[in-house]
TrEMBL record:
This is Uncharacterized protein. SUPFAM superfamilies: DsrEFH-like. Pfam families: DsrE (PF02635). It comes from the Bacteria. It comes from Thiothrix lacustris.
Amino acid sequence: MNIPFATDTPLAYNYVILLASGNEDGGKRATLAFSTACSAAAMDMTTHVFLVGDGSFWAYEGHTHGIHAPGFPPLEELVSNYLELGGQLYICSACDQVCSLLPDQDHLPTKRAGVELRGLASVLHYTVNGTSITF
């Protein structure tokens, strides 16, 4: 199958990936989001991943371990590669407190290295001169 590639899209664009899904699907949407993010970052596109709502689950150490969707590298590897490629990883500041706990936790776990707190206004700021996709 020959899949066309849009070569006329300016690389100066901001590519915003919103990950609003937690572990309810076994990490499939998170895997797709970070696979997309790695591809964009590897192409030297300015890439921002925002963890919002239940997607904020992925901002914490250990939450990506053991997640491996068929046909993709493990999620931990995708997230690490994305950060190594210079991708930006943000967690919604409100979601950090509200959506990040597992049912049996009474305190927030440790954020993984490379995760920054940002308000939702940052999403708007980056999408004004770019495009977004939601998982």
